[in-house]
Every structure is written in structure tokens, then in C-alpha cells.
Design brief:
The protein is mainly β. Helices cover 12% and strands 36% of the residues. InterPro entries: Flavin_Rdtase-like_dom, Split_barrel_FMN-bd.
């Protein structure tokens, strides 16, 4: 099968998200003049080592946020955001935090998620998350499309839960990170294998 996106796919559901998988989930926390916010984004990844940088993208809008969503609006306002790593055990809380709420709703409270303060930025983070990346916004890029924005940030502080460190390495099998697939599907990482590069 081949299709051009502008012509449509003719399938019951859009296959694009199912093709680009698995995608890590950035559980983005922000603080703005309307309060604290927490929401998951599956268009998320690390993009550079030195200095460490990440990005997340928002692809829809709320009527009360001037053409975008709360996370982008508050990152734009404050200049900071935090990426919280989602473990399998937090899947229901993560999903609850994705509910559509009016601007100013604190998803931490709405979803029953404990929060603590970040160290290098004025922003909350998910208490007890396996890891969290404190970030200062470097740029917000408007992408083609009605409400598509990519938010880039430089990591200024990194939290790792002590039980996730084994033999001096951050061990993802200790908490099984959640990843997004297509449709309503998710997966978790619970096994690893290693490959050495040909020149090593």
C-alpha cells in the first residue's frame, strides 16, 4: 500500500503514529501565571548531548490558550519546563493527566499526583518519577499546520531515582519506561540487548 497524506489513507484510523513507534513519553510539567500544569506528550525526544537538549511538540489547541495548549503556553511564558519520565506503574496517573481541563487546572491535583519543586528552575516536577529533566527553553518553533509547535530546551538539572541506578548505570529495566505506539496502544521496556558499533 502507498498513499499520499494529502489524499488520505482510506483506513479506519490514521496509521502514521503506528509507523513511527515506539515513542518515548515526555510528561511535561510547567508553571505559569495560571498555576501548575502536567501533561504527557509522545512527540518527545533528546536531540543533543553537549549541552544536553530535549524537545517536545504539541499538535492541537485549546480555545482558552490562543492557538496552542497549556504546556506550550506556560513554557513560553515562564521560559522553563520539566520532563518527567513515565514508568509503567504510573500509566494510569499519566493517562489521567491527559484529560482536557480549562486553563488554570492543576493536573497534579486533578490526577492525584504528588509534586515537588525543581532545583534549577521555578517549576514543579513529579515526585518519585524515575528521572526528571529540568529545562530552560531555548526556542519554540512554529511548524507547518494549524497548531503545531516544537519546544526545545537545554537541560539544566537531572534527577534520577536512587533505585534506578545499578552498577553506576541508569537501568531502565528497574522501572519499565512507558512508550507510545499508534492508536490507543502503549508498550513498556522490560528487556535489553547490546550491540557494539563496527568500529569499536
Amino acid at each position: 500500500m502507498f498513499y499520499r497524506p494529502e489524499d488520505g489513507h482510506g483506513l479506519p484510523h490514521n496509521p502514521f503514529n503506528a509507523i513511527v513507534t515506539p515513542r518515548p513519553i515526555g510528561w511535561i510539567s510547567t508553571r505559569g501565571s495560571l498555576g501548575d500544569n502536567l501533561a504527557p506528550y509522545s512527540f518527545f525526544n533528546a536531540v543533543a548531548y553537549f549541552p544536553p537538549q530535549v524537545m517536545f511538540a504539541s499538535t492541537s489547541a485549546k480555545p482558552d490558550r490562543d492557538g496552542t495548549k497549556d504546556s506550550v503556553a506556560q513554557a513560553r511564558e515562564s521560559g522553563v519546563f520539566c520532563v518527567n519520565v513515565v514508568e509503567y506503574a504510573a500509566r494510569d496517573a499519566m493517562n489521567a493527566s491527559s484529560a482536557a481541563h480549562p486553563a488554570g487546572t492543576d493536573e497534579f491535583a486533578a490526577a492525584g499526583i504528588d509534586k515537588v519543586e525543581c532545583d534549577t528552575i521555578d517549576c514543579p516536577r513529579v515526585s518519585g518519577a524515575p528521572a526528571a529533566l529540568e529545562c530552560k527553553v531555548t526556542q519554540i518553533v512554529r511548524l507547518p499546520g494549524e497548531a503545531n509547535f516544537a519546544v526545545f530546551g537545554e537541560v539544566t538539572g537531572i534527577h534520577m531515582r536512587d533505585d534506578c541506578l545499578r552498577d553506576g548505570m541508569f537501568d531502565v529495566t528497574s522501572f519499565s519506561p512507558l512508550a507510545r505506539l499508534g492508536y490507543k496502544d502503549y508498550t513498556r521496556v522490560d528487556s535489553l540487548f547490546s550491540l557494539a558499533r563496527p568500529d569499536e
